[in-house]
Design goal:
Length: 382
């Protein structure tokens, strides 16, 4: 098995993983970010805005930023906001951001099964990104759950578990190319290569490998290839309901890693609504919810109901107004307490989202981060 970044004590991922609770930021590189509301805010999909957010997060000591990928028709999900119509490519944008930063890890989502992606292309692209960022680049390999996205590429959606079989071969070829022991000859079910080679090779064995998994096939794939597993809540976005089932959920993700000698870093996406007092936070939450973009939510729900993702079964359309796999609402102390509960449930990290990103990230840094440090969940980054 190819050595990965966690096998090198000095890799950026290993350094980040020394934090009791890794902190990431889910970048809003798409119109509306992750919240389907028309309540006023400054959140913006533009590269300049996301670059500044990343620099802000890096200054605060965050460990990584993450870019989403999705393929949508004109108008996005519709509604007044044209939710997600504008969408920066996460690979290009995170590589560009990585060149402008010095410590933070950048992770890009790639739908490897769409169009004519070939592992030789991605192996060279990702190795180049790895060198641009000095080992601070990761690939979130996804197979796509939606029925309509593949049709944009002239394809039909492959059956769920079969997608992971193809992804397994794709990732295995990537790893052989990055290992670079010799030219690669491969004659598989899905891919064929003759005398293929990629150099320069990545700095720490290979780029960081991430997967977004919520099924047994996805967990098995992750155990073979992923350093980081990004998962959702199987019990919906309401924190009080979700937290009770999350320890068992994390245990299911870790189980296939038994015997591999590797320890996955499991992360989840909480949407944070934080104000000085609990009452102010819930009033702000209610103001956002009162201006829900219902048309875009119906569009999102229709798309999701036609997909075969297994990680969102208990999520309801109302969850989309704020967004996130979980929603944490309250005072700085409330937020710190609930992040501590996620750590106790077995999560190694969180990638945070906000409604109005820049000012709310600043408030989180000023008021919540010191509480996490006091609880031993974060160590100050110098």
């Amino acid at each position: 098995m190819t050595r990965g970044p966690l096998d090198y004590a000095d890799s950026p991922l290993s350094k980040a993983a020394r934090q009791p609770l890794m902190l990431g930021l889910f970048l809003p590189t798409q119109t509306g970010g992750f919240s389907q509301s028309t309540h006023p805010r400054g959140t913006d999909w533009s590269f300049d805005y996301n670059r500044q957010l990343t620099l802000q997060a890096e200054e605060a000591g965050f460990d990584f930023v993450f870019g989403l990928q999705q393929w949508l028709p004109k108008g996005g999900f519709g509604g007044e906001s044209h939710y997600r119509e504008n969408f920066l490519d996460p690979f290009i944008s995170t590589v560009a951001i990585g060149a402008l930063t010095r410590r933070i890890v950048t992770i890009s989502t790639v739908h490897i099964l769409y169009g004519n992606w070939h592992p030789l292309h991605l192996a060279r692209f990702a190795a180049t990104a790895d060198h641009i960022t000095n080992g601070r680049f990761g690939l979130n390999i996804v197979t796509g759950y939606d029925a309509n996205e593949p049709r944009m590429f002239g394809m039909e959606r492959i059956e769920h578990d079969a997608r992971y079989e193809q992804a397994d071969e794709f990732a295995s070829v990537l790893e052989a190319l990055w290992e670079g022991a010799d030219n690669v000859d491969h004659a598989g079910r899905f891919y064929k290569l003759q005398q293929a080679y990629v150099s320069p090779r990545p700095r720490y064995g290979r780029p960081i490998m991430v997967s977004a998994s919520a099924s047994e096939a996805g967990y098995a794939y992750a155990a073979r290839h992923s350093d980081v597993v990004f998962t959702s809540s199987p019990a919906g976005a309401v924190f009080e309901r979700a937290i009770g089932v999350l320890p068992a959920h994390v245990a299911r993700i870790r189980a296939p890693y038994a015997g591999t000698g590797r320890d996955p870093k499991v992360i989840i996406f909480p949407l944070i609504i934080c104000r000085e007092t609990r009452e102010e936070a819930f009033a702000y939450r209610d103001a956002i919810v009162a201006q829900a973009d219902l048309v875009s939510i119906r569009g999102y729900t229709a798309r999701h109901s036609g997909g075969d993702a297994q990680g969102w079964k208990e999520h309801v359309p109302a969850d989309r107004i704020l967004g996130g796999h979980l929603q944490i609402v309250g005072s700085p102390e409330d937020v710190a307490d609930q992040l501590a509960q996620l750590h106790e449930a077995g999560f190694n990290g969180v990638q945070l989202g906000f409604y109005d990103y820049a000012p709310e990230l600043a408030f989180f840094t000023e008021r919540v981060l010191p509480l996490l440090e006091a609880r031993g969940l974060r160590q100050r980054v110098t």
